[in-house]
Amino acid sequence: MSEEMQQPAVSLLDVSTYLPGEPIGADYYAQFAGSDDLRDNLMFRAPKFRHHVAPDETAIDMVERAAAGIVDRHGSDVLANVDVLITHTQLPDMPFYGGGGGMANRLGMKPNWVIDLHNGGCAAFILGLKLARQLLASGEGRTALVAVAQNAAGQVFDQATIRPKAQASVPGDGAAVGLVALSDVSPILDVECRTYGEYAGDMTMAVDPPRKWWQAGPGEGCIGFTESKITKVLARGNRQVPEVAYAVCDRIGLAPKDIGLLVTNQPNRVFLRNWREALELPAERHRDTFEECGNLFAAGVPINLDRAIDDGQVKKGDIVMMAAFAHAGDFAGAAAVRWGGQR
């Protein structure tokens, strides 16, 4: 019997999400818009709306609020019995450690494993699924929770000197949790994760006057974009997301055109269009909330999946393909799940 046949089935049983505050319209940023060399770049065409984390709202608060749907549908015991907690926070509340321990405490968990991920970036939910699947299949527990929080929009991109920049109007905040368990209800069929170390470091912080991110100084930090960097990121993202999705399709014997629903991260409209065209999928089989939420970074994949489930866009037996790339292209991942139709 093959190793694949011997490995127990691991399922993504449910997702639950949270968007902070009321929607913030594009006119909010329009009032601050300044002269910016990148103002007309396709990367930075603003969505109609986005959400911002509240000034006193922590990543732990966001994950607790995202988990409310899991508790409502499965009871509080399902969290109390979680064996593995995997977390990712875009902007950690403290720079020296991740939020996993605080999240476990807030959610009433005593997990055997608490793992904070940072390298996964916008593909962190997929990396979390891969890790959860491997740990549960190897006997390290029966249930895992993957929790992601995107909280940089209202904290980094809404700084007074950053608001006028073109990049500021695109990000939005949100959080999500995914419940993973030993089960064949909604099996994770395959996961592909790839690290492109040659691009590590291409995403940088820009501060004027220049300083290290942790040093005191007058300038507020943002992402260091240039026309040259944007051209490279566009090329990498356009290539990497279809590549990892195709790799998963090949291994599970699925033609890309037969994907039931494609769920990706959503940096901008250009990537969304290019990815579905590369996989030969119509727009109605590629879920995105870009106009309502903007670029949700790591929270984009689970938030879009949650919306698709609620709307009935994904049905029992459909194969959901999740795919994303991170940062300036140093990581990408894809995961296929046969949705079981239960909540």
Automatic annotation (TrEMBL):
Record GO terms (molecular function): 3-oxoacyl-[acyl-carrier-protein] synthase activity
Residue span, Beta-ketoacyl-[acyl-carrier-protein] synthase III C-terminal domain: 249-339
One of the protein's GO biological processes: fatty acid biosynthetic process
UniProtKB keywords: Acyltransferase, Transferase
Domain Beta-ketoacyl-[acyl-carrier-protein] synthase III N-terminal: 119-197
Species annotation: Mycolicibacterium llatzerense
Pfam annotation, one family: ACP_syn_III_C
The protein, known as: 3-oxoacyl-ACP synthase
